[in-house]
Write a structure and sequence with these properties.
Elements (H helix, E strand, L loop, with lengths): L1 H27 L1 H11 L5 H21 L3 H20 L11 H15 L6 H5 L12
Helix pairs in contact: 1-2, 1-3, 1-5, 2-3, 3-4, 4-5
Organism: Lentzea atacamensis
Subcellular location: Cell membrane
Pfam families: DoxX
Length: about 140
């Protein structure tokens, strides 16, 4: 039970950060502004990448919080962070301004929580007998 509560708290915390970043891309900067920023950073296919990143962060963050489709969401969020690390942050090192520490932490946490999301998740209710989406199935 303690591990399940810890996983829930982790999912909520990491999910909130992803939701905030995705929401910011949609509402504060807009996809056009995010795309322009991505283009300046050298992100390939900047408009497609901006739409992907904003959607994965917002929807994926909400799904992480709810605990639905956790393995899929964990992989998508981790892939998004891997792209951010390799394309934008890696040249700046791990620490300091523009460093990769946040994207490494977020990506690793999303991946871990995607495959170990705890019992308090919608996956446990919706996919009771599915070994892929509900790792608790023996």
């Amino acid at each position: 039970m303690v591990k399940d509560v810890a996983a829930l708290i982790g999912r909520i915390g990491i999910g909130i950060v992803f939701v905030a970043h995705g929401w910011q891309k949609f509402s504060e900067w807009g996809i056009a502004g995010t795309s322009a920023s991505f283009e300046k950073m050298g992100v390939p296919l900047s408009s497609v990448s901006a739409t992907f990143a904003a959607t994965v962060e917002l929807v994926g963050g909400l799904a992480l919080i709810a605990g639905v489709l956790l393995p899929v969401v964990g992989v998508l969020l981790a892939a998004n962070m891997l792209g951010a690390l390799l394309i934008v942050h890696l040249p700046n090192g791990l620490l300091g301004e523009g460093g990769g520490e946040l994207v490494v932490a977020l990506g690793a946490a999303a991946l871990a929580l995607g495959f170990n999301g705890g019992a308090y998740s919608l996956d446990r209710v919706l996919f009771k007998n599915n070994k892929v989406l509900n790792p608790a199935v023996a």
